[in-house]
Design goal:
Elements: H1 4-18, H2 24-31, H3 36-53, E1 57-61, E2 67-71, H4 76-82, H5 90-102, E3 105-106, H6 107-114, H7 118-128, E4 131-136, E5 139-144, H8 146-152, H9 158-167
Antiparallel strand pairs: 1-2, 3-5, 4-5
Helix pairs in contact: 1-2, 1-3, 2-3, 5-7
Amino acid sequence: MNNEKEIRARIEAALYASGRPLSPEELAKAAGIKSKRKAINITRSLANLINSTLSSIEIVELHDHKFVMQLKPEFNKIAKKFSTKPLLPPAILKTLSYIAYFQPISSQDLVAQRGSQVYHHLKLLEDLGFIIGERSGRTYIYKTTAAFSDYFGLSRDLNILKQQLARIKFGKITTNITK
């Protein structure tokens, strides 16, 4: 039905426009094919082509064969200067990075460290699906979700996540935040 060049172009367009990792199901749907395996193989081929040709953009394969098109980390600073509007304001991003690093963390501890504006931050971050709060007595305990890890290209394993965050300037997670 579709030739491989057209399938590759459709996957490339979907990865570019999404601004987030796409699953094999989403890649196959974008390509107009039924085979997830074929979508994965074509996306890997596309990744090899883009990663060897372009200097600042890459396609990365994450766990569960999800793929994301993103800036290479060393180009985030320059891109940030020219981006129009970030997904999250710096204060909310700092709250998110605080939750990610110190999770699980209570709402009381967050308010003590970040101030009462944290309640607005928590609502927005929950609406985006980046965090989840579970009731524990009279407070909530917050932790990040798989959607957070996938969106920012970070590990779901807490120990690895903390190492990754330690390498990033605290409160300044920049991968994909401008999309």
